[in-house]
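Work Package 3 (structural annotation) set out to generate three-dimensional models for the target panel prioritized at the project kickoff. During this period the team completed the workflow that converts sequence records into discrete structure tokens, so that structures can be stored uniformly alongside our sequence database. As a representative example, we reproduce one entry of 552 residues exactly as it appears in the project archive.
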Amino acid sequence: MLRGLLMLFLLLVPAAAPAGIRATYAGGEQPAMTIEIADNGDVRADVAEGWQLIVLGGRAYLVQDRLTGPLVMRVEDLAALLPASRASAAAASGGSATIAERGSAVVNGRIGRAFFFPHATGLDAGTPAAVISSDPALAPLGAAMHRAFAAEALIGALDWGWPADNSQDALLALFEQGAPLKYYDIELSSLERVPIDGSRFALPAEPETAEAVRARRAAEAREEARPHPDNMISRAVFADGRLWLLTDHGRLSSLVQGERTRRQHELDEDVLDICVHGSAPVILTGDRWDGEGWTLRRWQGGAWRAVRMIARSFDYLVALSCGDDWEVALTSNRLIDLTGRIRAATLSQPLYPPRVRTVVHVTQDAVWVGLNEGEWGGGLRRIDRRSGAVATIERNPTGSLCDGPLNSACDPVNGLATIPWQPRCIAAAIGLMHMATHGRIVAACPQGVTQLFAADAAHPLEGAAAPEAASDGYGTVAFFGLTATGNALIAVGHDGLYRIEADGTGARRPWPRFVEVDGILVSFALPDVVLVMSNLNRRASLSSLTALMAVR
């Protein structure tokens, strides 16, 4: 009886929550790094964008959060992929760098030993490269941060080609003596003792084997060096219950939600562009640079039916665009209205297909054309539907190189939409990923061009309105698509979807999960749009995958 009461008492007493410390390091241009250390020595740290380090039972893992879900790799398996030449280069450079201790320094109210590079010059000569604390309360940070910064360097070496750095190795060795208060331009900004749930250190998936890591990364390197032509998606539309995908090589495929292979639509001519008229997809086929003309085809009864022929006039196609009650073909020297009887207006100046992609938006009076030339910009054009007059729409008040808000020489335009709360104005999505990222949404109105919205990739909007997001300065989020819905705009950023309201506020929604279908990533997870990742932007910029948005 007594034993039973004792067991009941123990069950009713709350168990002590697992405890540990949580520290944040901030500074420089990188996002803050948060690290959690459990009392049993387990570690979890954000070491790079999309990467976490987890140390579980003394063994270190790197977790990469991908669009398709998390990948888990053992740190030693990744380290084994470093080229032997890297170690040889480090040895040839003279071994460990020399570091000198010179007194102490205070970092955010904490004091530590200051270490300098003796041969540093300028401002670096008077600034410690590292400050190390001997405070016993900070003791767990030393070993944990050594692992975190070493993991960051490993990712940098593998993914971005960071060279071997003896000075960094020498600084990391100092972490054996205490906790880093400062490491280069990163400082310990906060430290707290908190309850930490053990699930924080759980691996989200089974670790890949060393062989699987090597094989996967080799395949990814081949794809990055020479993307498969079927992955160079230039257009994505949704119609007749299917997602239609067109490559810039003229190959058309489609799929429905849940399918794991694409249906290839083999035609006797290349498919030059696709759009949706009403509820049916429409394509234009023919020779891209030669031939007598093009064929307009419509999807009817599960097959492509030829609708009409369009004769060439010493020109080539720039884009095909459709709406509920219109179809327009834009060529290098004509604007062709295909609604009813064919009518063509000669352009006042030639318009050449861009290196990457063209987007078109038609209003009652004009055809707006966004051009993506990659690192060479592109910009925005307005074509009068009656006269064919072409005007370049841009604004650079300062005249400085690549200043905006809309600069044809530097700003690719990747999406266009009528602004719901300003129906006389067109919103244009600007986005470039070329080493760094830049972008914004601008409004092109009769009175001129103004910035409508911009966001900072280092401080993303996670579902909360942020009025300051549209104010002052240009953003570091690159935008690659745009559509109007209700009284809002939906923009495709390089880091998620943004909803922009009439008051200029924005809310960011992170990417949903994607699935791989015949080498491309597709997501049907959202009710209003289907998302597709494309390699196309890599042709003209140092870009990663960018998203195309197909409105359902």
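The longest helix spans residues 139-160.
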